[in-house]
Amino acid sequence: MCCDGECRPLGFLLGLPFALVALLISTVGVLVWIVGLTLTLIFPCCFCVTVIVEVALELVKAPFLVLQWFTHQIPC
Questions:
Q1: How far is CA 64 from CA 3, 11, 18, 60, in A?
Q2: Does any domain span residue 58?
Q3: CA distance 15 to 11
Q4: Is residue 43 part of a domain?
Q5: Which residues are CB-neighbours of 64 under 8 A, at least 6 positions away?
Q6: Per the domain annotation, does 2 fall within a domain?
Q7: Which domain holds residue 21?
Q8: Rounded distance between C-alpha atoms, residue 32 and residue 9, angstroms
Q9: What transmembrane ranges does the database entry give (predicted)?
Q10: Is the pTM of this model over 0.85?
């Protein structure tokens, strides 16, 4: 019987170390996001600061994306 995608504990366990590394990167992303948001308020016309804030937001989402990717790679 095929799994409906709800339980994939092996993918979760294999992805956990990578998610922890992504969590560290995520904390860097939060710091960059705070600094970039402050710079965006000071210099609203500067496009490069907006790009840095967008990249920082992707870094914050990294642990969730890593775990999701790993769980979908391992079949039930």
A1: 21, 13, 11, 9
A2: yes
A3: 6
A4: yes
A5: none
A6: no
A7: 16-73
A8: 33
A9: 12-35, 41-60
A10: no
